[in-house]
């Protein structure tokens, strides 16, 4: 079945372009559009798409608040949100990820990465633009140390390997290829990490890895 997507962007030309790109892809169906944050929340709640693609800066509600309402800790039925923006600013990245976004892309990422992010989010994975990931790690490396919070049940050596790769934005398929294990094995490890860390999604796993210095900027 096709991945159902709602596109939210306040710039008509940009929104039309995103709709055209996604609508031309096999396996993706654009089912709705929104031109501001309030409309994005209303349309997404009404249509329940598989993925909401939302711009970070919009009138009414910005993309971070839209993400928090639809995918954050207080969301009754969280949905997959991918944030896309022209503004390559750390506070936007961190705000979107902490709000529950499953992906963060810059608008110059290109159609291929955009499509990958949509499919990854629909499959429960998370994709962050590689250049954003590298800078995000550097930001954490330069900030004040965070006292590691260990889960009650210890993380295994294999789970540590999966954790590090998730934190670098790898998908399940990429992790399976890198560790020479089956896709189902990776999914099992990711599910175990979510349980042990109390994480609701892969991005929360990645943020925990960053916060506890499991991943270093030069890795």
TrEMBL record:
CDD domains: LuxR_C_like, REC_NarL-like
Annotated GO MF terms: DNA binding
Residue ranges constituting the Response regulatory domain according to the UniProt record: 4-122
Domain of life: Bacteria
Residues recorded as bearing 4-aspartylphosphate in the entry: 55
GO BP terms, alphabetized: phosphorelay signal transduction system; regulation of DNA-templated transcription
Coiled coil: none
Keywords: DNA-binding, Phosphoprotein, Transcription, Transcription regulation
Record carries keyword Transit peptide: no
Residue span(s) of domain HTH luxR-type: 148-213
InterPro entries in the record: CheY-like_superfamily (IPR011006), NreC/VraR/RcsB-like_REC (IPR058245), Sig_transdc_resp-reg_C-effctor (IPR016032), Sig_transdc_resp-reg_receiver (IPR001789), Tscrpt_reg_LuxR_C (IPR000792), WalR-like (IPR039420)
Descriptive protein name: DNA-binding response regulator
